[in-house]
Write a structure and sequence with these properties.
The chain is of the alpha/beta class. The chain has three domains: 154 residues, no CATH class; 120 residues, 2-Layer Sandwich (Nucleotidyltransferase, domain 5); 183 residues, 2-Layer Sandwich (Nucleotidyltransferase, domain 5), CATH 3.30.420.40. Helices cover 39% and strands 19% of the residues. The strands form five sheets. It has a five-stranded mixed sheet with strand order 8-7-6-9-12, sandwiched between helices. Strand 13 and strand 14 form a beta hairpin. Helix 11 crosses helix 12.
């Protein structure tokens, strides 16, 4: 990879002044001594700029077409300051967090002369920047991504559109949850779960859209066999879904672009038609995790996270509604270390999926001196880790402690994008006693960093809810029509 397209280009430009900010965290992940949380480094820079008077105000706004608009403030160095690249690096990291947490195809920038132009150049010339621009532009929102220099007083006002979904118990419903290593389905009748199952699959390597359709339809039919009729279907899946369409999803990564546009994009509408046009809702799996947490705990201002084949997240606002935000924290920055793990899809370093998912296990098992057979699939490696943890192997405990430490520092960073009062963490990585170790480690981080950290209450779920809860909650997403309600 050329220096021009190196995803670490911005951090390399900032390197002369970066080292002093990358202080070791108060709580060290036992298997990752080079981990340097971006939340701590960014906070240190902001404090230094404010105390020294060298800081210059920057206002950012991220806008979805016809939807959410969020504003944020930060500080950078003045034009001509030798440390200018350092401030611009952290400004871009904040902007990346806003893009992947909230979503938008237009960015407004009010700051020192040249900042907007240099940010725009990042999205044109670096691999990681082009990935963000392409997905935020044409792939998700259907229009070119742009960075606009604009006075903060002329920014469009903040907006937080809400969606009223979930919590419905009436009728005969099917819910499903699609991950990269398994698909789950549940049959629910008037709020009672009458059937649920989990089946392995490998969608990431399947190029034929019909294969995907058949596998999902098979799960629906297996659930329908346990119901007298089907009134509604709700689903959650990894990826970005807008108005029932697949916009971006790693599940379909192997499908050629033309076939994705002509078949996969409308796949769930096709399934809805095949099931007689019953109410059919598909949303991101993180949103369902958030709904599950809110319903289980009876709280709001909750971030739900699913640690599975990747990292999914969703947010229930203080008024109890879902938002139109993306909540794709798999791509949000977490680690500022220059040699942080590289994400193979986005081309960026230090992003959430490499720390809070089964992908983290692949990286951490060798560091814990846990050997697995060559070619063993990632889900089987997780099963082996769970077996060792259940047997009291301290090496397994180190893996879970490391992931929990990542989680704690991730939450410190996410507090810059969300008002978080409660967190529920689900997913296969959380199954078994290792899940308790993860939560304990995350609590330790927040307590150690209490002076600058959010006050967060963690909520737990039963083992069944950790594995199957999202499919059950997804079943309650659609509202029944009059015909179904009266049936």
């Amino acid at each position: 990879m050329s220096a021009r397209h190196d995803p670490a280009t911005l951090v390399r430009a900032a390197a002369p002044a970066l080292g002093g900010l990358l202080v070791p965290p108060r709580v060290a992940p036992s298997l990752d001594p080079r981990f340097r949380p971006i939340a701590l480094a960014s906070a240190a820079l902001q404090a230094e700029l404010e105390a020294s008077g060298r800081g210059r105000d920057v206002w950012l706004a991220v806008e979805q077409p016809g939807g959410s608009i969020v504003h944020r403030h930060t500080l950078v160095h003045a034009e001509g300051d030798p440390a200018l690249p350092l401030g611009e690096y952290f400004c871009e990291r904040l902007l990346k967090l806003l893009l992947w947490s909230h979503g938008g195809s237009r960015v407004y920038v009010d700051g020192p002369p040249g900042l907007a132009q240099r940010l725009a150049a990042h999205y044109r010339t670096s691999d990681a920047g082009r990935f963000d621009a392409r997905l935020m532009g044409e792939e998700i929102y259907g229009q070119p991504f742009e960075v606009v220099a604009c006075p903060q007083l002329e920014f469009p006002p903040p907006q937080e559109p809400a969606m009223s979904l979930g919590g419905h118990r009436d009728g005969c419903r099917i819910g499903f949850d699609l991950g990269a290593s398994d698909r789950k389905v549940a049959a629910v009748r008037d709020g009672e779960v009458v059937f649920s199952e989990e089946r392995p699959w490998d969608p990431v390597h399947q190029a034929d859209p019909q294969w995907h359709y058949d596998q999902i339809d098979d799960s629906l039919r297996r659930a329908a066999a346990h119901l007298p009729r089907v009134d509604a279907i709700g689903g959650s899946a990894a990826g970005v879904y807008v108005n029932g369409e697949v916009r971006v999803a790693s599940l379909f990564r192997a499908v050629p672009r033309t076939a994705f546009q002509t078949r996969v994009r409308g796949l769930f509408r096709e399934l809805a038609a095949a099931w007689g046009g019953v109410p059919f809702v598909i949303v991101n799996d993180g949103e369902v995790a958030a709904l599950a947490g809110a319903q289980l705990a009876g709280v709001t201002a909750l971030l739900g996270m699913a640690l599975g084949s990747s990292l999914a997240a969703g947010y229930v606002a203080r008024d109890g509604t879902l938002t139109t935000w993306l909540d794709e924290l798999a791509f949000a920055p977490l680690d500022a270390a220059p040699e942080a793990p590289l994400d193979e899809w986005s081309g960026d370093r230090g992003c959430g999926a490499q720390y809070l998912s089964q992908q983290a296990l692949v990286r951490l098992l060798p560091a814990a001196a846990i050997a697995t057979p060559a070619g063993m699939a990632v889900p089987e490696q997780l099963v082996e880790l769970q077996r060792l943890m259940a047997g009291g192997d301290p090496r397994a405990g180190q893996v879970y402690q490391t992931i929990g430490t990542y989680l704690g520092y991730a939450l410190l960073g996410y507090a810059g994008a969300y008002a978080i009062e409660h967190v529920l963490v689900l997913g296969r990585v959380m199954s078994g006693p290792g899940g308790d170790v993860i939560l304990d480690a995350a609590r330790t981080v927040l307590e150690a960093e209490a002076s600058g950290g959010p006050r967060i209450a963690f909520h737990t779920a039963s083992e069944r809810d950790k594995r199957h809860g999202q499919a059950v909650v997804a079943a309650g997403l659609p509202t029944l029509g009059r015909r179904n309600a009266d049936a």
